[in-house]
Structure formats: structure tokens, C-alpha cells
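SAMPLE LOG
Freezer: B-3
Tube label: C17
Construct: single chain, 135 aa
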Amino acid sequence: MWLTINLNSETAIYTQIRNQIIEGIIAGSIKENDSLPSVRQLAADLGVNLHTVNKAYNLLKQEGFITIHRQKGAVINPAENYRADQDYLVKLSKELRPVIAESLCRGMTRTDFIEAIDIIYNEFKSLKKEAKNNG
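STRUCTURE (predicted):
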């Protein structure tokens, strides 16, 4: 199974599913027009409630990552469907505010924070480049 859920994580299971699908897209293990497992199948595979998987899929649909077809199920959209727009930048700002505040409380400098972001960003950029070269 390409998805692994940590039941002891503070991160909600539906968020873990959502995040891992997005990471799979950037890594190239999930490609445009690929079908995801059905809600029932993925819930059974992961041993979670089907409403949890449904919530993850609905978030991905709202964010433009997938389209849900009656016959094909959940299908990965082309990248142009989920490019960063103004709404995404507002959402990003809201999500980063508490992370930045906590980092400052913990004594991180701006340089430390930017370096931490650069490391993660470059990991994903490398995955994307590798996926493109293998694709």
C-alpha cells in the first residue's frame, strides 16, 4: 500500500490521507488521470472508517486535485487545475501564521526558519524532477 497511516499521530487521519496523496502527485507515484482506490477500498485497506477517506477525497476535490466521476471514481486532475491562486495564498498565509509564531516562540531566527523551509522545498523539488525524468 502506498499510503501509510499513523494512528498515533496528532494529525487527523483524513489529513494524513490528503497529504500523502498530494505528496504522491509531486513524487510522480500518482499521475494525472490515475484513478485512486474507491472510498470503500481505501478505507478497508487502511482499516479506517469510510467517512474518513470520503472526507479526504472531498478536500482534494475542493482543492482541485481530483475529480470524482460516477464510473471512474476519484481521478487525479491535470496540474493546471490546482495551481496557486489568490485563494490558495490566503489559505497558505493562515496556515503558516501559527507555524511561524511557534517558531519565533521557540527562538528560531528568520534564517533558521527559511533554511528549514528550503530543505523541505528542495526535497519535494528533487522528487518532482526525478519523477519527470522517469516519467
